[in-house]
Design a protein that fits this description.
About 40% of the residues lie in helices and about 20% in strands. By secondary structure, it is of the alpha/beta class. It has a five-stranded parallel β-sheet, covered by helices on one side. The longest helix is centred in the C-terminal third of the chain and has 18 residues.
Length: about 140
């Protein structure tokens, strides 16, 4: 079986303890996880180079979430990165481009959501874009 490069997950959040815990849990599930804290919006393109999915931590304010999401959309290198928001309640969170997950949740549930988001993203991409992803297997 060929070696698969681990999926790279960036975690953006205010709570360092939660961010580092997520990073460790995801690494234990064979992801390359990076906790970035609350980076400056203008640095997102640079910091998210090579990232395949972004998790927004539960402690981010609604205003900060919107700034991050808008920053991702505006940067050509990050506009197509799927986003998974970890939130304490699903009330009032209907953004069609972002999947929401109740937090806290079990690691297995989070991993399942990540896999689903990545599969949906892969299916939505054209066949030529998918070839580049398949070539990542070494």
């Amino acid at each position: 079986m060929p070696y698969q490069v681990p999926t790279t997950v960036a975690i953006i959040g205010r709570d360092r303890v939660v961010g580092q815990a997520l990073e460790l849990l995801l690494r234990g599930a064979d992801y390359d996880a990076r906790f970035l804290g609350e980076p400056a919006i203008e640095k997102l393109g640079e910091l998210l180079d090579g990232v395949e999915i972004v998790l927004l931590g539960p402690a981010l304010s609604a205003e900060r979430r919107e700034k991050v999401l808008n920053g991702l959309k505006c940067e050509p290198g990050t506009a197509n990165i799927p986003v998974l928001e970890l939130i304490p309640t699903l009330e009032g969170t209907r953004n069609g481009h972002v999947r929401h997950v109740m937090w806290p949740c079990k690691t297995e549930e989070l991993v399942r959501h990540i896999a689903e988001v990545l599969a949906e993203h892969e299916a939505a991409r054209g066949p030529y874009e998918n070839i580049a992803t398949q070539q990542r297997a070494v």
